[in-house]
Write a structure and sequence with these properties.
Elements (H helix, E strand, L loop, with lengths): L2 H9 L6 H12 L5 H14 L3 H12 L15 E5 L8 H10 L4 E4 L10 H5 L11 H11 L1 E4 L7 H12 L6 H14 L4 E8 L8 H17 L3 E8 L7 E2 L1 H12 L14 H17 L6 H14 L1 H12 L12 E6 L4 E6 L1 H10 L16 E4 L6 E2 L4 E7 L5 H9 L2 E4 L9 E5 L1
Parallel strand pairs: 1-4, 2-3, 4-5
Antiparallel strand pairs: 5-13, 6-9, 7-11, 8-10, 8-12, 9-11
Length: 437
């Protein structure tokens, strides 16, 4: 087979065969096809999509480019969560410990930042010493011992996806439904889990801009999970405003620890800026717990998750996790410099352009412009107001944080154009729109 002919076929909106997909993906993984040809195929897929059969073949090829983790030594039902990504989306750091402290097993193979969205691995690696590069044997051992473990893709797990994932991030081919589905589900099926809770985002800061598109993605992901006989549920949640108080790696870890310590942080409007992060973490934890069959209702599962969080058991579990993965929580770095951004007019905060906020984070080096970029763990953005809040001229909207203030000016300009104030109060922001499955 000729790579250029396969690219041409997809460019011309024709369906690729299972054999053509396998040839191209596995040849690229083995360094027999260069980045520029893979980029061309990704762009052709981005514009022309893939059929269900093509998406299933792509997922299966990525999955079997490596090994499936043998979790048979871990007793009982294994469950994980995946989020399609957003700005300030940090729930994994809370729900993993909650579900593990509830007596269940959560093996988590996590990703890095993709496009304007943050990545769980980047957040955890802002904790000095935290090692996400565990062997698969150690991954299973820690999951069995603690109840959860966070690792990145090893060279054995979906190596095709690992290579393509990095290329998508820098070639503007992230927001493609079949590519998203294959990337997510190949990694999740490789974990050896029995059930999966999906947090599928919609809104200005999500890859899916509308709830309808998020629903399509959720159904496509669930169809793949069901084809592997996995229990699955999807939560459709909003990314029309950043989640919680902070975006940025160490700052998000700090927020999660504060929540696990049962702390709150009140804005000038009197709102707890940790509330959305806490609530979404509890809701997702509840669905994970209920999916295992441990509870008879979702309300019972939510009550159990809340009890675990408020008792301090989740924090204890997170501290245990950090210790086992060599992370020094007491040395979590905090930014040394900051600059505030204030409103210039009064009214109500009507909307956020959350993707623009995420791009400002990349300028601050909280994310990557190219795959080789080094993350600055203390860089990030603090949010002081939420949609619907009353705003006066001079009120604080954002604080830019970091250790390198020469990045602040460009990020400031982008943030200045990332929100809208109107004279009319907007409708209330709804965090969770619906649950599917």
């Amino acid at each position: 087979m000729l790579p250029a002919e396969i690219i041409k076929k997809k460019r011309n909106k024709l369906e690729l065969t299972k054999e053509e997909i396998e040839f191209f993906i596995l040849s690229y993984t083995r360094h027999q096809i260069p980045d520029y040809q893979m980029s061309a195929l990704l762009m052709a897929i981005y514009f022309n999509g893939m059929s269900n059969a093509e998406t299933v073949a792509l997922t299966r090829t990525m999955l079997h480019s490596g090994v499936v983790v043998d979790t048979s030594s871990i007793p009982g039902f294994k469950v994980d969560k995946h989020s399609t990504g957003g700005v300030g989306d940090k729930t994994s750091l809370i729900l993993g410990p909650i579900v593990a402290a509830a007596g269940l097993y959560v093996p988590m193979i996590s990703g890095r930042g993709l496009g304007h969205t943050g990545g769980t691995l980047d957040k955890l690696e802002s904790i000095p010493g935290f090692n996400t590069q565990q062997t698969l044997e150690r991954f299973v051992e820690l999951t069995k011992k603690i109840g959860t473990c966070f690792i990145g893709q090893t060279k054995e797990i979906c190596p095709a996806d690992k290579k393509i994932y990095a290329l998508r991030d820098v070639t503007a081919t992230v927001e493609s439904l079949p590519l998203i589905c294959a990337s997510i589900m190949s990694k999740k099926m490789a974990e050896g889990i029995d059930g999966l809770v999906l947090d599928v985002k919609f809104g200005s800061g999500a890859f899916m801009k509308t709830a309808d598109d998020a629903r399509k993605l959720a159904n496509a992901l669930m169809d793949i999970a069901k084809s592997y006989n996995k229990k699955v549920i999807s939560v459709i949640s909003s990314m029309n405003q950043p989640l919680g108080r902070f975006s940025g790696n160490a700052l998000e870890v700090f927020e999660c620890i504060e929540i696990m310590k049962n702390k709150s942080f009140r804005s000038a409007a009197g709102k707890d800026l940790y509330a959305d992060t806490r609530e979404l973490s509890l809701q997702l934890s509840a669905h994970m717990i209920h999916l295992t069959g441990k509870t008879t209702s979702i309300d019972e599962a939510y009550a159990l998750a809340k009890k675990v969080l408020e008792s301090g058991a989740a924090l204890k579990k997170f501290e245990e996790l950090c210790a086992e993965q060599s992370g020094n929580l007491s040395a979590l770095p905090m930014p040394k410099e900051k600059v505030d951004l204030h409103a210039t007019v009064g009214g109500f905060l009507a909307s956020y352009d959350v993707e623009k906020i995420g791009l400002a984070g990349i300028i601050l080096r909280a994310g990557r412009m190219i795959t080789e970029d080094k993350i600055h763990p203390t860089s990030g953005i603090e949010f002081h107001v939420q949609i619907g809040d009353s705003i006066k001229a001079g009120d604080l909207i954002y604080t830019i944080h970091g250790d390198e203030s020469h990045h602040f000016a460009s990020a400031y300009q982008m943030l200045h154009n990332s929100f809208e104030i109107s004279l009319q109060k907007p409708s209330e922001h709804v965090l969770i729109k619906e649950v599917l499955g």
